[in-house]
Amino acid sequence: MSDVTETTGSTASASGDGGDVRLRGIGKTYGDFTAVHPLDLTVPEGSFFALLGASGCGKTTTLRMIAGLEEPSTGSVHLGEQDVTRLPPYKRPVNTVFQSYALFPHLDVFENVAFGLRRRGVRSVKNQVRDMLDLVQLGEHARRKPHQLSGGQQQRVAVARALINHPKVLLLDEPLGALDLKLRRRMQLELKRIQTEVGITFIHVTHDQEEAMTMADTVAVMNAGRVEQLGAPADLYENPATTFVANFLGTSNLIEAEVASTAGGEILVDTRGGRLGVPAGRCSAPSGTGARLLVGVRPEKTVLALADEAGRIPDGRNRVTGVIAEASFLGVSTQYLVDGPAGRGLAVYAQNVDRDPRLVPGAEVVVHWDRAHTFALDAAQDIEAGVERVEPATAGKDGRAERAERAERAERAEREEKAGKDGQTERAEQAGKAEDAWTADGAAKEAAG
Amino acid sequence: MAPLTWFRRHLVVIFGLLTLGYLLLPNVVVTVFSFNDPAGRFNYAWNEFSTDAWSRPCGVDGLCASLALSLQLALWSTLAATVLGTMTAFALARYRFRARGAVNSLIFLPMAMPEVVMAASLLTLFLNMGARLGFWTVLIAHIMFCLSFVVTAVKARVMSMDPRLEQAAQDLYAGPAQTFLRVTLPIAWPGIAAGALLAFALSFDDFIITNFTAGSTVTFPMYVWGSAQRGTPVQINVVGTAMFLVAVLVVVVSMAVGNGRKRMKA
Q1: What pTM did the predictor assign?
Q2: Does A2 have pLDDT greater than 50?
Q3: Which of B166, B171, B184 best tests the A interface by mutation, with the highest count of A CBs <10 A?
Q4: What's domain B62-232's superfamily in CATH?
Q5: CB A306 within 8 A of CB A356
Q6: Whose CB has fewer CB within 10 Å in chain B, the N or C terminal residue?
């Protein structure tokens, strides 16, 4: 969505609250390259806000402009009533948890956490640091050096080091990027718990859509330096406004269609696979007769029926015909890919309640779903936007695992690139190695508690 | 078969010891002969055990004066080269500026060039400028070639430093000066220390460049060289042995301190 004011329209909170973060027309260009197109954002005080996007979409740059580590080319940053646009980072009431943590290697855990307090001239830091280390469950590691800690522990030191200053806003730059999947899940819940406990505004940058949806109250999906859509996770998932959001958040079946008629709050569209109905309220594009749309539905909302039993499908449901191209049994569910006149590779996720043994590749089927679950997007967009390419060999896997894997791959590449740049390979490796130990440690603690 | 297996298993240790012996043998000779009471003027053949030289280290004309001069030169050139070199290294590692590549290779040049060539051209330069050869010309020359080594050592350290560490410091309310003192300097410190030690050693025992630029001033290496023509006093061995012991002591102490710190933290 290129119209910036429209995206803000949906977020503009009750104006001028005490601690809101307000970005006004903030943008960043490097020479000819525009990293962030001027954007407006308001993050309400005390909320958990996620900036979600693929690497290079401008989310980290946006974060760094709030931190003051990057000077915006245009626009302003307000924290509550204070304009901090021209303030250096050390004068902003904002703290950051950096990607790969950036713990001071020459200081122990205690001194790392005390750093901010000492710089502000706080005299007795001992009790505060103690309390903070207890909050992140690192009390007994106070005198260790960062390199003696596991990745998960380092991550918690980084959070403690930032939080102890009671910032107005805590910025998290892919803080869980270096952790393995299992540990990442734990830390997501941990961060959410801490946020609820301290009530500070969190702005979290991530490329992991599940992470964003699990943790954040509000998610802003960014793409190519713009905010594509902004809203609560469920809202984004159910009502994507662009093909990018539809494909980047989970999986969507998008079918090319043309509006045939509009009547009674419902739009009827013609596709190559027949006529479908879309609730008018779920169409984010102009829907005059003849307008071109992309009709979408999430795979888990669709049902598969054999073609010769199509008569049993209740009337009033959207249906498209096709042939099963692939079926992958995943235990809890089965994922089918259906090729038909409406489109190729329509995904259907079926819970394994009563498995019909006749639903195998080659079977002629009807895919049907409730019209209310249908959404429609402007067809003047790339239908593939936000689709993460998958090798044919892995196409059958569960979407979740697949995405996680892809995310991990992207992340590894990113990390390696960074590592090469900063000569941090060793550290990344260390972090990787230490994880297992920590998971075990955490599990033991869990058992004990 | 058994001896062969034993040999194979301990190959690394054996070669390690041989190499160490090869490296340390000259030092052993110097130390042993510092306790000699030579028959003639040359301390090349073992005659009789004596601690005479150790009890009168300054017992030879000019030796202690030259030693003091060398130490002074080494101290000042280390100080100047370390300060200048550290700043240069930061500039080269952190900033992109015009002629950065040229500066980079110019810094490398003194290490690559034969010392004689550099010494000769320095002499030419000093003479053309009408400078009086002596302490200052030697100091300038020493600072110049020490600079390269300091820059190289510090630059490697600065380049491998995560720039996010300084950003993190700034994010945690440290202004530019605080960031430098509390984060940048402590992290770059090992590189700076290595550069400084290297500079001190290079300056202290430099002969060729010093010989060209010193005029009538005599540093310790020049004194040793000069006396080798007339006769070698045992005191030279004493000074050599003392230097060696000081160096070993510094290494041992720093290692002990490092280990102690590590153990305390763990």
Answers
A1: 0.74
A2: no
A3: B171
A4: MetI-like (1.10.3720.10)
A5: yes
A6: N
